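Two folds, back to back.
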Amino acid sequence: MVTTRLPGRLHAAALRRPGTGRTPHPAPLEALAALTAARTAPPRRMPGPWLPGPAPVVPSPRAAGGGLPGPARPAPRTVPAPAAARALPAALRALAAVRALPLPRTPAVRAASPAVRSALAACTRAAGSRRARVLACLAAAAWAAAFPLTSRLANQRTWGLLAAAAYLAAALAVGLLPRARGARTAARTAFAGAVVLPLAVLALQGHRQSEVGVVERSAQLLLHTGSPYLADPAVVTDYNPYLPAMALFGLPRALLGGGDATTDVTAGDGGLTGLLGDARLWFAAAFLLCAAAAWRLLRPHGTPAVPAGAPRPASPLLVLTASPLVALPLAVGGVDLPLTGFCVLALALAARGRAAAAGLALALACALKWTAWPALPVAAVLLLAAHGRRAALRCAAIAVAGAAATVLPTALTHPGAMLEQVVRFPLGLTAVRTPAASPLPGRLIAAYAPGGSATCLVLLCLGGGAVAARLLLRPPLTAVQAADQLAVGLATAFLLAPAGRFGYLALPALIALWPRLAARAARRAAVDLAVPERPVPDRAVPGRAAAEDAAAVVPVPRPPLDLRAPAAP
């Protein structure tokens, strides 16, 4: 039996093994049989006028009909086509039919797809209703009100009191004002009461989390000693688990004065100087600028977000920033917020094909914290799949060179301190335990399983390998797909790490949420712009509107149709 190798999905569909529960499509089988017959058919001699032998003579029509005799003419010779020529059209039709087939899906996925699509559509419709918005504001208020009752940190209790009142006011605005105006007023109220006011109050009072003080102290150490790390850390607040570029956010405090390398990191200076030098202000500025730039990149260029004359909804950037997911870190000290902003901006730039700019954003993100390193292969694969190998190599080269130029000087001059504080301390491998001890799977395995730390590291490697394999097998083509894969990888790392906290999961949540919101707003704007608007008549001119309305309904005269059959000639 002669086996014919067909290209790609045609061969896989045609030679599918029996017993898999799938019925082969007839088109691949037809193509396989045709090509096999073409290859196994013996060569034939095609008769023609050039071959020897007398040609049959057919009498002319006049002679056959009994009319005048006419000259005899030879019969037309029909040349039969070979088997390959007859099989080629059938093979081409089969290939076209195979390429039009959808990708095979299992019966469970095929049965669940309509239910999942209908559920998602119902959730989307319900999320835009007034009742759903009021419930969301009340849930945010309840979540914020829990901090004064359960938290032991003064800055979180202060934020909870102010944010709960702001979310209650936002719920009243949504419920009492018109729909579009109520949404805008609620977003602005929540942003002012849950972000701006708590940040200003906490900065003026000098209350902050220890992470902010660690960043500001690292800037002082970098200016005085050339290294952002203490030589002999003794307590938890002496450890700096961030890469050297994070010290840039503490430079304003170091340049404006106030504080030194021995100051308590949990207490700030307060006052106007403390407000301007507070690292939280620069964290928020970096995050908002990067998120706004990513929003502009993911929107269609040259088209407004809202059609002219339509009510302007609340900005998704404002709504996301006013939500508790971002408002709490912004107010009390969100070290991961600038990291999130740079990662989202890098993915948006990679989706637009701007390889050099994406490399610079990735270099900044990778020089802040090691958790941004998975964003580099994701952005490179996105550029490779969407814009070619040259763009991917340019982005990777710029990102690696920029991050190395920032990290290597400190790594070469102070390797021991950097290894101890940046690598061993976050993994829980030092004598001083990290305060990140939420009951996540990796933390439970490290604490209660035999050989827990080694098991967690093995699981981290296996999880990273699985995420990398999916990245290579299903490369992303858009910023949303790339953000989803990056979020899955980061969530896997945080869940399986020996030391972690629930707050770390806000980073993958924001990375997955923000590009999706921007792309959804862009699609909605494109649909709105594609719908033609009805022209508004000019009511200022008397009689003009009535004339235009009458002209709009007057039918255009057409010549009458003659349905009679044409006369016979």
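---
second:
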Amino acid sequence: MTKKRVASISPSKKSSLTFSTTVGQNKVSTNLTNSLAPFRIFLGHGPVQSVSLAPSARRSAGQTQKEPAEFGPTSLCRTQPVFQRAAILLQVLILALFFAPAALARPVPASFADLAEKLSPTVVNIYTTQVIKTPPWQNELFENELFRRFFGFPQAPRRHPQELKRTSLGSGVILSPDGYIVTNNHVVEDADEISVKIANHDEYPAKIVGRDPKTDIALIKIDPKEPLPAAEFGDSDALRVGDWVIAIGNPFGFEHTVTAGIVSAKGRYLGSSTYENFIQTDASINPGNSGGPLFDMQGRMVGINTAIYSRSGGNVGLGFSIPANMVKTVVEQLKETGKVSRGWLGVMIQHVTPELADQFGLDHPMGALVGEVTPDSPAEKGGLKPGDVIIKFGDKTIEQMNMLPAIVAQTPVGTRVKIEVVRDGKRKQLTVTIGKLDEESGGAAGGRIKKRLGLTVQEITPDLAESMGLDIKKGLIVTDVEPDSAAAEAGLRRGDIILEVGRRPVKSVDEFTEAVRESRGALLLLVERDGHTRYVVIKRKQK
């Protein structure tokens, strides 16, 4: 029976030596002329002109050959001692062990064609239409009776309101054969009509099953004529920086465009949502890719593409995807109830700077520093205290503060979680039972007015004032401002200190909430920023 050769050394031109090894379908070859030199010197060999361990032509033709191999113009095996022949075989063994890891390492993909062919049918193109009503046209000048009589103009006809249709496009990925599709919330948020085109160019109307603006995820449903190919969820936590990924989507309307790149970073935070924990990739993502999948090399969906960072509006190698583990958690709830329930810990946290790390006994900046613990919250019941630095939540290490809100939000309500903190320079283990986040209150002090104003405030404690370098020891600090909210339009920022509401001093969350409730119309605030005070007017948005 013929055995498969897995390693060989064969002569090459100009008296060089070539080593080849095969593992599976991967073949690694290298020139060993220079590599053999130290081994020959160590073993006492002279120069080697050419070497061949392959069977001779006579043996392959069925003839008997007593010589095991030929070395150059004269047989080294016939003229040198036996121990030198053994030394040569030892060289081969050493070199095989030396180069084997290179063959076993994951190679650069020669082509993405097989993956693209397999996965493209799971991706859909989404077209939305929004009907916009324009106000009736009229010109105040021509409506003026004296003006018309003076110039002799007739009564100007009044035009009726008009309806304009605005269309947009995006991408989505099929999650089940019966037509459930995940996409971005911003793709379908204000749509009056949603159309989905699948890979065979059939189009279907779609309805929204549920939306979650906080994570920018939406679940829609179509009724296909036959079962559809569905994507498989992967483990986004297992992704490593540098792993290959491919994106498929509908950029600028170019259907089923496939691009490839690597995972550039994990845990990215762009500042538009509390629960951001993006995967950064240099796979080309452009407008229209929103809602499309990011796949790993095993063909599993590891993310949903949602944003790009660009000054020109086009791809510059900075694309961001929602991790698949977060997508899976949200989608399951949207499918079951049409809304999302999030876990709640009940702490106000902040970044750990190098200066804070030194003060709180950390080797380097990491974790989430607890500035305040909400009374009667899961955190308080579990023993968390202001000044604790949360460095581990369950089995996940908290490298930076932004990671914690997303991880807590994904944790099912009622789950008992072990939390590791650094307290007074020492590590301490605590156990907390996760509660349910009240979206109306934001699960935090002062959050009851967040939905009305887009603003969350927190009472300033002595520990918080010291950690943030604040001169003021009491009052309220703005901890969150929602984009496009009334507070954001007024120019409020995180870190602003609120001194008065409606010319009434406020020093607690209850006082602030009461002052907001009693005020009518626009809200006047006295705010301190960078040591200077200024008045800010918040115009409440109509419900």
